[in-house]
From TrEMBL, chain A:
Species whose genome carries this gene: Halosaccharopolyspora lacisalsi
Residue ranges of every copy of the Dynamin N-terminal domain listed in the record: 43-194
Pfam families: Dynamin_N
Stated name of the protein: GTPase Era involved in 16S rRNA processing/predicted transcriptional regulator
InterPro entries, per the entry: Dynamin_N, P-loop_NTPase, TRAFAC_Dynamin-like_GTPase
Automatic annotation (TrEMBL), chain B:
Compartment(s) of residence: Membrane
Gene Ontology MF terms in the entry: GTP binding; GTPase activity
Keywords: GTP-binding, Hydrolase, Membrane, Nucleotide-binding
Domain Dynamin N-terminal: 61-203
PANTHER family: SARCALUMENIN, TRANSMEMBRANE GTPASE FZO1
InterPro entries, alphabetized: Dynamin_N (IPR045063), Mitofusin_fam (IPR027094), P-loop_NTPase (IPR027417)
Gene3D superfamilies according to UniProt: P-loop containing nucleotide triphosphate hydrolases
Protein name, as recorded: Dynamin N-terminal domain-containing protein
Example of a GO cellular component annotation carried by this entry: membrane
Origin: domain of life: Bacteria
Chain spans, region Disordered: 1-21
A Pfam family assignment: Dynamin_N
Keyword Nucleotide-binding in annotation: yes
Length: 602, 504
C-alpha cells in the first residue's frame, strides 16, 4: 500500500523533527499525515474578495450553499462534502489548549446563512460551516472549501484562510475575467504554492466581458513569469445556472464548468494517490530541507565561534592580571606613604600637646609654692597628660580609618569590599609605667635658723648704725641702732625665705619636666608600635586580596584552556553526529523526492 | 440636476463676490513672497512659479487607484470624450495629464527635464496608448491638451495603478509626489483592500493634510462587475460603499465613497441613434430569447439571431456599455425609454456617474479655493522644509499662521469630525451645522438652507436666526471642550455669512 509507505516516511521525518526540537514542523507533518489517511480530497477555493469564489462553489455543486454576491459575504470557511442527505453544521473553533471540544451544531440547510450570521453576531468562535450534499461530483471524496477573501480590509480573514491552507490537497485560485492577475494576487499565489503545490487558476465571470480570452493569455504569461505551474479554467456561473435550468449540454460546455469538473475528477479525485504523494513529497522535502539547513548552519558556525570565544576569554584574563599588578604597586605606595606621614604627624602632634602642658607647668610653678600645692599640681599634671595621650590616640584612630579608605580606593572594587576592618586603636596608658614625679624636698625653715638669720641681719645693722651714732657721742646700743638692727634683721629673714621658695619651685619644675619627657618617650614608643602594627595588618590584608585575585585569574585561565581543549573534543563528536544525521536526512530527502517520480518502493 | 459645465460656470461667476481677502489670496501672497525669497535659486523659484501659474489654470484632480480599476474609463466619462485609452491589460505606466488647450497637443516630459512635442493634428488614442507604454525611466509624464469643454474647469492627472509593477519600479514616493501636485484625488478601487487604505492613509500623514484633510473621493469602480457580475452588482457595490462610508478609518480622509460604473457612463454619453435603433430591435425579442442572448458576452457577440443587428454593432455596444449596460439599456428601452436623450440620462443614472459628478462638484469645484490654498501651502511647506536657510523663519511663521488661523480649514475639519462621529450633535443641530459649514454647497443660499432664488431679506432672516440659535448653543455649559470649539466654529461661519451679506 502506498499509504503505509507515505505514512512511514512522514513518521520518520516527524521523529527527526522531534529530535531537533522543531515541533512546529512536526505539527505540520502531523496535519499532512491526517490528510493522507483521510480519503477525502480537500480542495480550497481561494482568492481576493468579490471575485466570485462562493459563486464558483455554488455552481460546482449546483446549489446556493455559499452566501454569494453582496459585500464581504464569506466570513467563516464553508466546507461542502458528500452526504446522502442534504445537511448543514456549524463547527466551533477548537480551544487553543485542552482536549478538542469540537462543538457541532446541526442547522437546517436552507437557513444556514442566517444561522451563520446570527452566530457571528453572537460572537461564537466559528471555525467553519460544513455542508453535506448528495452530488455525484462529490461522491469520490471531493471536498470543496470556500474561504474568506484574501487581502480585504480586515486582516483576520486572511489569517483564517492561511491557517486552512496546509490541510488542502489542492487549491483553486479565483481571479475574475475582468482583470488580469495583480501583483498582490501573484504574490499570494507564490506564497500558497509553497504550502500546497497543487494549484489551478479559475477565471469566473467570462459572461461579463467579451475580452476574457485576452485575460486568460495575459494570466498565462504572468504565471509562467512567476514560475507557477497551474492550469487556467475560464468559467461562467451564470451560463452554468442557465444550462442546468434549461438542461442544455451545449450551454453547459460553454460555461466552462465541465472542463473544471473533469479536472477536479481526474486530476484530484482519481489521482488522490498522486496528490498524496505530491503533498507528502513536497512537505517532507521542505521540512527536511529546513532541518538540514539548520544542522549545516550549526556545523559551519561551530568551530570558529568557540575558538574566538576562548581567545577572548584568555585575553580577558590577561587583562585582569595586568590590572591586578598595576593595582598592587599602587596600593603599596599609598600605604607606605601614609604610614610615613602618620609617624611624623603623630609624633609632632603629641609633642605639641606636651609643650602646651609644659608651658602651663612653668606658669603655675612660677607663682605657686610647690610645698603647699604639690598634690593638687601633680593631680592636674597627670590628668592633662592623660587627656593629651587619649586625644592623640583618638586622632591616630581617625587617621587609621582614613588610611584604610585611601588604600581601599586603590584596590579593585570587589577587593575593597572584602578588606577587613582593622581593630580600633586603644590609647595606651603610659602614666602607669612612669614613676610619678617626686615632690621637691620640703626643707622647712626651722625657727632657730630663722632667729639666726634674723640675728645675723640685726647684728650687722646694730653695729653699723651704733658706730655711726657713737661718733655723735651716743653709746653703741642706742635707739637708732637697735631699730636699724631690727629692720635689717627682718629684711634678711625675708630674703632668705624667698630664696628658699625659688629653689623649691625650680626643683618642682625640673621634676615635672623630667616626668613629661618620660611620658613623651613612652607615648612615642607606643604610637610607633601601634602604627607599625597597623602597617603590617593593612599590608597583610591587601596582599592577601591581591594574591587571591591572582590565583583566581590563573585558575580561570587554566580552566579556559582546559575547556577549549575539551570543547574541541566535544565539537568533533558533535560534528561527526551532525554529519551522520545529515547523511540520514539526505537519504530520507531522496526518498521523499522520489515520491513524485513514481519510483518509491515500500 | 444641472450639468457640471453650467455649474462650474456658475462658480466662476460667483467666485469674486464671495471671496473677501480670502484664504487663497493670502496663500497666493505667501507663495509669491516665498518665490521672491528663493529668487537666487532658479530651480526652486521655477518650481514655485509653476505652482503660481497653476492657480490661474483649472483645478487639478488626480485619478488614481488600483491597477485595472477603470481610471482611464472614468477619465473618459468625466471628460465626456474618448481620450484616455483603456485596454484589458495593465498598461498605464506613465503619469498622464489631461488639460484644456485650444489645439490638440501632446508633450512628452523625460525624467531629465527635457520636453518634446509630438506632432499631432488630431488626438489619436493609439498614439497616446503607444506613448503610455513607454517605461517610466524613459518618459516621466505625458501632457495631453485637448479642446474639450469637459476639461475647461478641471485638469485630470492619470497615474499608474497602485500596486502595479510600474509603481514598484518608480516607487511609492513618486506616486505620492504626483498626488501632492493635485488639488483633489479620486481614488478608484474595485474593492477597498488593505493596501488601498494603507496607501491613502500614508498620503494623509503630512502636517498640512492633518489640518485640512478632505480632498479625496473613494470610488468603488466597475460596480457593474462586482460580486457575481449579475444584475444585482450595482446594489451590492452600493452596500459596500455604504459600509466603508461609515468606517472610521476611511472617514478620516474621504467623505464620499461611491460606487461607479464608468464604462456604462462613458458609453451612455456617446450613445448614437444607430445604437439606440439596435437596442430597440433587441427589445422587441421576447424575454426568454433575450435572456438567452444576453447570457454571456460571447453569446451576444457571436449570435446572428436577430439579423437586424449586425455583429459590428453588437461588439460596439458591448465595448461601449458592457454586458450589464446592454442588459440595462435593453430593459430601459422595452420599458418605453426610446429617445436618445432620455436613454442617455437614464443610463447615466444607472452608472452612478452623476453622483460622482455631483461629488466632484461639491467636494472639489465648490471648494476649489480651500483646495488650491491647501496645494499652495503644501508647496510652500515642501520648499521651506527642503531648502531651509536663514531668514526663512518669518515665512515659516506666516505659513503656520495661515495654517492654523484660517476658518476654512476649521470648517472642513469640523465637517469631517461631524461625519466621522468625533463631534456629535443631535440630528437637527447636526444637519444645520453641516449646512452652515457648507456641506451642501458653498453658496450663501445653500449654507442657509434657502432656495437659490431666495430674496436678500429671507437670507438675512435665516442668517440671523441661525446666529441666535448657535449663540445659544455656544453658551451651553454642558459641552466639553471639543463640542464647545465646534459650536464656536459654526458660530463663526454664521457671523461670516452675515458679514458677507453686509458687504453685498
Amino acid at each position: 500500500m502506498i499509504e503505509t509507505a507515505l505514512v512511514e516516511l512522514i513518521d520518520r521525518a516527524a521523529a527527526e523533527c522531534a529530535e531537533q526540537h522543531r515541533f512546529d514542523l512536526g505539527n505540520r507533518l502531523r496535519q499532512i499525515r491526517g490528510r493522507v489517511l483521510d480519503p477525502a480530497q480537500l480542495v480550497l477555493v481561494v482568492g481576493e474578495s468579490q471575485q466570485g469564489k462562493s459563486e464558483l462553489v455554488n455552481s460546482v455543486v449546483n446549489a446556493p450553499v455559499c452566501n454569494a454576491g453582496e459585500d464581504i459575504t464569506t466570513v467563516v470557511p464553508t466546507i461542502v462534502r458528500h452526504s446522502t442527505e442534504p445537511s448543514a453544521q456549524l463547527v466551533q473553533q477548537e480551544p487553543a489548549q485542552g482536549p478538542p471540544a469540537l462543538d457541532r451544531r446541526p442547522v437546517p440547510i436552507e437557513r444556514v446563512h442566517d444561522e451563520v450570521e446570527q452566530a457571528v453576531a453572537d460572537g461564537l468562535p466559528l471555525s467553519r460551516t460544513e455542508i453535506g450534499l448528495p452530488r455525484a461530483v462529490l461522491r469520490d471524496g471531493l471536498v470543496l472549501m470556500d474561504t474568506p477573501g484574501v487581502g480585504s480590509i480586515s486582516s483576520s480573514l486572511t489569517a483564517t484562510t492561511q491557517s486552512v491552507l496546509t490541510e488542502a490537497d489542492a487549491l483553486l485560485m479565483v481571479s475574475d475575467s475582468t482583470q488580469e492577475l495583480t501583483t498582490n494576487e501573484l504574490k499570494f499565489l507564490k506564497q500558497v504554492t509553497d504550502l500546497c503545490p497543487n494549484v489551478a487558476l479559475v477565471q469566473p465571470k467570462t459572461d461579463v466581458t467579451p475580452r476574457w480570452r485576452e485575460i486568460v493569455e495575459v494570466n498565462r504569461k504572468h504565471l509562467v513569469q512567476a514560475e507557477i505551474s497551474a492550469r487556467i479554467f475560464p468559467v461562467s456561473s451564470k451560463v452554468r445556472a442557465q444550462a442546468t435550468s434549461a438542461k442544455n449540454p451545449t450551454l453547459n460546455t460553454e460555461s466552462g464548468f465541465p472542463a473544471l469538473l473533469e479536472y477536479l475528477r481526474s486530476e484530484m479525485a482519481n489521482k488522490h494517490e498522486q496528490l498524496a504523494r505530491k503533498l507528502v513529497s513536497h512537505n517532507v522535502s521542505e521540512v527536511l530541507d529546513q532541518l538540514m539547513t539548520k544542522l549545516r548552519e550549526e556545523l559551519s558556525n561551530q568551530s570558529p565561534r568557540t575558538a574566538t570565544e576562548t581567545l577572548l576569554e584568555l585575553e580577558n584574563a590577561q587583562h585582569k592580571a595586568d590590572d591586578l599588578k598595576r593595582i598592587s604597586g599602587r596600593w603599596q605606595k599609598t600605604l607606605s606613604d601614609g604610614i610615613q606621614e602618620l609617624y611624623s604627624d603623630i609624633e609632632y602632634d603629641f609633642r605639641e600637646r606636651t609643650w602646651a602642658i609644659l608651658h602651663q607647668v612653668d606658669e603655675v610653678l612660677s607663682e605657686a609654692d610647690p610645698d603647699t600645692t604639690w598634690d593638687d599640681f601633680a593631680e592636674w599634671l597627670s590628668s592633662s597628660l592623660n587627656d593629651a595621650v587619649s586625644e592623640t590616640f583618638g586622632w591616630l584612630d581617625q587617621r587609621r580609618e582614613r588610611l584604610t579608605e585611601e588604600v581601599a580606593e586603590q584596590l579593585l572594587p570587589e577587593h575593597a569590599r572584602a578588606l577587613p576592618s582593622l581593630a580600633e586603636i586603644h590609647p595606651s596608658d603610659p602614666l602607669e609605667r612612669v614613676p610619678e614625679p617626686k615632690a621637691p624636698k620640703a626643707a622647712g625653715f626651722p625657727r632657730k635658723d630663722q632667729i639666726l638669720t634674723g640675728l645675723r641681719g640685726s647684728y650687722g645693722g646694730v653695729l653699723m648704725f651704733g658706730l655711726i651714732t657713737s661718733m655723735a657721742g651716743l653709746p653703741l646700743m642706742n635707739v637708732v641702732s637697735i631699730s636699724a638692727g631690727l629692720l635689717l634683721g627682718s629684711k634678711s629673714l625675708n630674703e632668705e625665705k624667698d630664696s628658699r621658695l625659688k629653689r623649691r619651685q625650680a626643683e618642682a619644675r625640673n621634676a615635672a619636666q623630667r616626668y613629661i619627657e618620660h611620658i613623651v618617650f613612652q607615648v612615642n614608643k607606643d604610637t610607633r608600635d601601634t602604627i607599625r602594627k597597623l602597617h603590617q595588618n593593612l599590608h597583610q590584608a591587601c596582599n592577601r586580596l591581591t594574591e587571591q585575585g591572582q590565583i583566581e585569574i590563573s585558575q580561570s585561565i587554566q580552566e579556559t584552556k582546559r575547556a577549549a581543549e575539551a570543547s574541541a573534543v566535544d565539537r568533533d563528536q558533535r560534528a561527526r553526529d551532525i554529519k551522520k544525521k545529515l547523511e540520514e536526512l539526505t537519504v530520507l530527502r531522496k526518498r521523499a523526492a522520489m515520491l513524485t517520480s513514481n519510483r518509491i518502493a515500500a | 440636476m444641472s450639468t457640471p459645465e453650467t455649474r462650474q460656470a456658475e462658480t466662476r461667476q460667483a467666485e469674486p463676490r464671495q471671496a473677501p481677502a480670502s484664504l487663497l489670496q493670502q496663500a497666493r501672497s505667501l507663495l509669491i513672497r516665498t518665490m521672491t525669497f528663493y529668487r537666487d535659486d532658479p530651480r526652486t523659484a521655477g518650481w514655485l512659479r509653476e505652482r503660481l501659474e497653476r492657480l490661474d489654470h483649472p483645478l487639478r484632480i488626480a485619478v488614481t487607484g488600483r491597477v485595472k480599476s477603470g481610471k482611464s474609463t472614468l477619465i473618459n466619462a468625466l471628460v465626456g470624450q474618448q481620450l484616455a485609452p483603456s485596454d484589458a491589460e495593465e498598461r498605464t505606466h506613465v503619469t498622464t495629464v489631461y488639460q484644456y488647450g485650444p489645439e490638440p497637443r501632446i508633450t512628452v516630459h523625460t525624467p531629465h527635464g527635457a520636453t518634446q512635442n509630438v506632432p499631432v493634428t488630431a488626438l489619436d488614442i493609439s498614439t497616446i496608448r503607444n506613448l503610455q507604454r513607454w517605461r517610466p525611466d524613459e518618459v516621466s509624464r505625458l501632457v495631453i491638451e485637448a479642446p474639450f469643454p469637459g476639461l475647461q474647469a478641471i485638469t485630470l492627472l492619470e497615474t499608474p495603478g497602485v500596486s502595479s509593477s510600474a509603481v514598484t519600479e518608480t516607487g511609492r514616493s513618486a506616486l505620492a509626489q504626483i498626488l501632492s501636485e493635485a488639488d483633489g484625488v479620486i481614488y478608484l478601487t474595485r474593492y477597498p483592500h488593505q493596501t488601498d487604505l494603507r496607501f491613502l492613509e500614508s498620503m494623509h500623514e503630512l502636517r498640512i493634510t492633518r489640518r485640512a484633510p478632505i480632498n479625496t473621493i473613494l470610488a468603488i469602480s466597475r460596480a457593474d462587475e462586482a460580486g457575481s457580475g449579475g444584475g444585482d452588482s450595482v446594489p451590492a457595490a452600493d452596500k459596500t460603499a455604504r459600509r466603508y462610508r461609515d468606517d472610521p478609518r476611511v472617514r478620516t480622509f474621504a467623505q464620499y465613497v461611491l460606487p461607479v460604473a464608468g464604462l456604462l457612463g462613458q458609453g451612455a454619453a456617446e450613445l448614437t441613434t444607430d445604437e439606440v435603433a439596435a437596442l430597440t430591435e433587441l427589445a422587441r425579442l421576447d424575454s426568454r430569447q433575450l435572456e438567452e442572448l444576453l447570457l454571456s458576452a460571447d453569446r451576444f457577440a457571436n449570435n446572428t439571431f436577430p439579423e437586424t443587428v449586425p455583429t459590428e454593432t453588437r461588439l460596439r455596444l458591448l465595448e461601449r456599455l458592457g454586458r450589464f449596460g446592454v442588459e440595462r439599456a435593453v430593459g430601459l428601452v422595452s420599458e418605453g425609454t426610446r429617445e436618445l436623450k432620455k436613454l442617455r440620462s437614464a443610463l447615466l443614472d444607472e452608472s452612478r456617474l452623476n453622483e460622482l459628478h455631483e461629488a466632484v462638484y461639491q467636494q472639489f469645484v465648490e471648494r476649489q479655493e480651500a483646495l488650491r490654498a491647501r496645494s499652495v501651502l503644501m508647496a510652500v511647506d515642501m520648499v521651506l522644509r527642503a531648502n531651509p536657510r536663514s531668514g526663512a523663519q518669518q515665512l515659516n511663521g506666516e505659513f503656520e499662521h495661515l495654517l492654523s488661523n484660517s476658518h476654512e480649514w476649521d470648517e472642513l475639519r469640523l465637517l469631517s469630525a461631524l461625519r466621522s462621529g468625533q463631534v456629535r450633535f443631535d440630528k437637527q443641530d447636526r444637519e444645520s451645522a453641516e449646512r452652515l459649514l457648507g456641506a451642501h454647497g458653498n453658496q450663501r443660499q445653500s449654507r442657509l438652507g434657502c432656495t437659490s432664488d431666495a430674496s436678500e431679506a429671507t437670507l438675512a432672516d435665516a442668517a440671523s436666526s441661525a446666529l441666535t440659535h448657535w449663540r445659544e448653543l455656544a453658551a451651553n455649559p454642558m459641552h466639553d471642550r471639543l463640542h464647545h470649539e465646534a459650536t464656536r466654529t459654526v458660530l463663526r461661519s454664521c457671523e461670516r455669512l452675515i458679514a458677507r451679506q453686509v458687504q453685498s
